[in-house]
Amino acid sequence: MATSDRSGVTNVAIIGFGLLGASFGLALDGVPGIRRLCCTRNPAAREWALSEHAADSVSADPAEIIPRADVTFLALPLPVIVRYLTDYAHLWRPGSIVTDMGSVKGAILQAAERTVVPRGVVFVGGHPMAGTEYSGHVHAFPTMFRGADVFLCPASNASEEHVETVAGFWRAVKTNVIRIDPSEHDDLVAHTSHVQHIVASALALTILGSEDPREKMLRDAGCAGGFRDTSRIASSNPVMWREIIEFNTPAILNALDNFQKKLDVLRAEIASGDYDAFQREFARGKELRDAWLEKHMRNK
Amino acid sequence: MATSDRSGVTNVAIIGFGLLGASFGLALDGVPGIRRLCCTRNPAAREWALSEHAADSVSADPAEIIPRADVTFLALPLPVIVRYLTDYAHLWRPGSIVTDMGSVKGAILQAAERTVVPRGVVFVGGHPMAGTEYSGHVHAFPTMFRGADVFLCPASNASEEHVETVAGFWRAVKTNVIRIDPSEHDDLVAHTSHVQHIVASALALTILGSEDPREKMLRDAGCAGGFRDTSRIASSNPVMWREIIEFNTPAILNALDNFQKKLDVLRAEIASGDYDAFQREFARGKELRDAWLEKHMRNK
User: Fold this and answer.
1) CATH class of A185-299
2) Which CATH architecture has domain B10-180?
3) CATH 1.10.3660.10 residue spans of chain B
4) DSSP 8-state class, residue A194
5) Do B138 and B113 form a contact (C-beta atoms < 8 A)?
6) pLDDT tens by residue, A175-225
7) pLDDT tens for each residue of A125-143
8) Interface test mutation site (partner A, options B134, B223, B232, B294, max chain A beta carbons within 10 A)
9) pTM (2 decimals)?
10) B228 interaction partners in chain A (CB closer than 8 Å)
11) In chain A, which segments carry CATH 3.40.50.720?
């Protein structure tokens, strides 16, 4: 790894030890030349980090961890990332690198340019396309990131070498790194992830939200594997998703419009009895999804 | 089993040996007192049925199978069920029982009342809530129905005993049997299954259908586990889904309206910046889905 102290060891701070931070700590276990410094206010997560070898040292105090960090991964909720960049900007050493795992990049890059970048702290926004519907270190696992794509968005002061340093960590945990512009990223994830959470939630609410006891019983019985999978991400953390949606509202509304247009086309075909057209659209969706799955599975 | 010939053996015809028919044949292997007669025009499926012990005898000719059947399971596409009831009504023995595995019940019951019922052939509509996004006997497996709910809709000439005979087969393959009115059934599955296929297809088309090469590359990369699951049923058979939707259009349009209303509420909350309200809705969806999953998993 690039940046390192006199001992030749790179100090990697992981701030926040929820599902992603804890999985990242586990995934880095055994990578040579690094020391993992875990920072979390959750005492159970600190204890767990040491007993599971997800970190080499732990602290509840950012002031103990941040000044020692060569590279800092902020594995925190979006508003907390912004708060850390604001409140602790003075703690990072100039020249050290800060990156994050937040699901939205525009707002985070703006916060970084306003806070750490003017102090000479290098920022590279990051977003691993990984996670589950569960939260917390207890659901972490070391192969969480394997085969996932990671998007990197360098701030104005990040050189190629800085980006490569961050990319090196992600490659060490077997991900595929992609450089992207923050607004392109936010439009992308609005489509591939955020809108799907909204749609999955609307499906769960529509289908299971009946107030009538018999309808409720029947709907429960009538839901099978299709519903289980289509609605899986409706079981995600409501606070986290509120934050993601709050941080990416314009891109999400645009992606919702695109989804709505497609749904309207399918509905109009059904309502007008043009089942041939519906079948063609459905076949095209199957073809696209099958091709994606085949490629996705081959690469992973 | 209730109905049987002089030998005490009940002849069970399974007409159609695709995913459901073939899985049903496999699931009935070893159930005492029955003889499974497989009828399919697909030579490979007939050969497979015998070699995999999914049937005790096979034929390509309905005229060879139907007259011998005490109970007939029509495991065929919806329009083919209607065609069989119409074209072969004269082949069934009066007093024998015919049932089906079609995903829509109103149109099937209407066809049965018009065709086999006037000839004294007993009809009990059936619909197992089971299946995968794959088709064909090669994807069949014996535990396909285990823990699934099966809806039964008796025609006007079906007694309690007739319904119990059909229910007995479904219980033998470890399903949970529920009696239901055909229109109640069709409204139910429009919500719990049909609309979800339309939504999943619209998502796949919206996200993967880009004509722009870089956008296409990024969208492919940006899709992860959430998309994989939310869109899984978009990979289902387009012909089958066209048929299901054609057979259940009014109930599907109504269910689409209900979904649309809920989606509009969520969109309005996001657009107006009422993230507290969005979070409450999302939390309610999670609560409903988590409760469903917990119960579903406990029962299965």
Assistant:
1) mainly alpha
2) 3-Layer(aba) Sandwich (3.40)
3) 185-299
4) I
5) no
6) 999 999 999 999 999 999 999 999 999 999 999 999 999 999 899 888 888
7) 999 988 877 889 999 999 9
8) B223
9) 0.86
10) 293, 296
11) 10-180
